[in-house]
Target: Carbamoyl phosphate synthase small chain
Amino acid sequence: MFSVPAPAILALADGTVFEGVSIGAPGRTTGEVVFNTAITGYQEILTDPSYRQQLVTLTYPHIGNVGVNGEDVESGAIQAAGLIIKDLPPLHSNFRAEQSLGEYLRREGVVAIAGLDTRALTRRLREHGAQNGAIVALREGEALTDAVRAEAVAAALAAPSMAGLDLAQTVTTAQPYEWTETEWRLKREDGSRGYGRLAQPRFHVVAYDFGVKRNILRMLAERGCRVTVVPARTPAADALALRPDGVFLSNGPGDPEPCDYAIAAAATVIERGVPTFGICLGHQIMALASGARTFKMKFGHHGANHPVKDLDTGRVSITSQNHGFAVDEASLPATLRATHVSLFDGTLQGIARTDRPAFGFQGHPEASPGPHDIGYLFDRFVGLMEQARAV
Ligand SMILES: NC(=O)CC[C@H](N)C(=O)O
Model:
């Protein structure tokens, strides 16, 4: 019933080679190797545009158990450059499943490897920091030779460093579009299942797309926001000409620092006093636009159980995270205050302007499948738009 999988290897830039089996498309892929500790949500992780040019290792050992469906996607395609897992079950089972993870990876042409020691790999990344790697997945019958291994290490070494890379432009929408789809429900009042539609918009939000995740747009629509999603390079004047109640700065891949066009647009929008909310890359861009600095972390935060403390209330939330850069707390100017901090490593997780209605969060308050502890930040954004309207 099951054919023997072809061999695959993962080579790191430091020369380490892990051997496993191919579970996706044959071929070669390179990127920054990162690890994500989430137990659920592999489909949402693969389709998150912030994973562009990254090879994602999932530390949870069984991945693919519930298959793949057409609804749980954060964008229109798999965005991660490759997938690294311990074990792909030969059978999947779920009432929503439409195909297996392996079929999905092959259909999308994504190279992926299973059967290697993901714990050893993760320990190496934790100790030495994130580094570039290459996955080579052979075709059935092809032999794994020393030449293949050497080529893979060379490919890992040749891959570009994430620091300094503007990847937002590579994932952004080419044209503006409107968004009104609301959150997924198992059972709506009318008995239907799935996503809903915003009937009566209360606010108009312009969302800068640096690689936006769909669930962010759904959570805005759920709260009465009609969203116009605009390309990353949209000048502030064009965004403001749409007369939005609020501006949203999305998550996205790569280094925030080279995104000078976005930093300039954010600075203008914030200066004008338009309520502004930034998530992840958008939060970093807001910080840079306000005069703070960002830096590359050792191995970043990628997972679904990161405790974050709200410094205003003392409340601790469990959050979803996916970032390799962070805002340097020591660099905050007088107009920015720290609002949230990571309880894993003390790094900055949230900021707010002291002089304008603008705030940002480093983690993912929209996380689907969760956790949902920090969804209140969307309510805060809506509150700022309400207040601005009352003036
Ligand atoms: N999820 C994101 O928006 C990630 C932001 C940025 N690319 C980082 O790695 O820090």
User: Anything to note?
Assistant: The longest helix spans residues 376-390. The longest strand covers residues 294-310. The chain has a mean pLDDT of 97.
